[in-house]
Amino acid sequence: MSSLTLKPPRRGGRWPRRLAWLAVILLIVAALLMGGAGPAYRLELVSLSTSFAWLRQGAHLLIGAGVVALVTLVVAMVCRRWRVALVGALVIAAGASLVALPAQWMQLARSVPPIHDITTDLENPPAFDALVPAREAAPNAVAYPGEATARQQRAGYPRLGPLTLDATLGEVRGAAEATAREHRWEIVAIEPTRIEATATTRWFGFRDDVVIRLTEMDDGVRVDMRSASRVGKSDLGTNAARIQAFMEVLARRVDGATAP
User: Fold this and answer.
1) CA 175 to chain centre
2) pTM for the predicted model, two decimal places
3) How many whole angstroms separate alpha carbon 165 and alpha carbon 63?
4) Per residue in 169-213, pLDDT tens?
5) CATH classification of 117-258 is 1.20.1090.10, yes or no?
6) Domain boundary assignment for the chain
């Protein structure tokens, strides 16, 4: 008669694997909530408050997934369950990559002023005209917020200012329109001395309004610009970055440009 060899039970039993599965499930749900928050709002499936709630809930679940994954890793290593330990390590790594974007947002929120209306002319900001109806339907005001915002902009973006181009008004207007289209903005109005457009952010689909004002000067054409969000108190530096990027591209497009 042949003797039967029984396999010894795995150390830790089923608990290491159950912990690993729990960590994976929490990670997947967190990723779905955080990754879907922006597209769901952009497609008008949920409100902005619901979208932000998904982000918060996803972040909490992500923390939970990290804790469970860490416990999984420790238990699996003690029990010498190396495959389960690998799952725990992978969940921790994936969670760290998912938390990078919210962490970057938090860092930006602390490093930039909590404003959403940026302009190169703080004394006489370019005014919206064609975009007035769209902005009146949005939470943020049509008019420039005033000196309090200007003071915060001076402190947060001291180098942001107008651009003077050594070219004709028609050349500058054409270059400005081409630059706006290159950035895939929706052109709303083009006049001899002004352009109005709307820029849409990629993930959430936030709509920010832009007005470009052209003024003929003795030394060329002065370009002023204003970029303002329709919703939100802080833009996390988006509008200032948009103006700076636009001015840099425009300056390269037109010869003989000087930026103070």
Assistant:
1) 27
2) 0.79
3) 51
4) 999 999 999 999 999 999 999 999 999 999 998 888 899 999 999
5) no
6) 15-111, 117-258
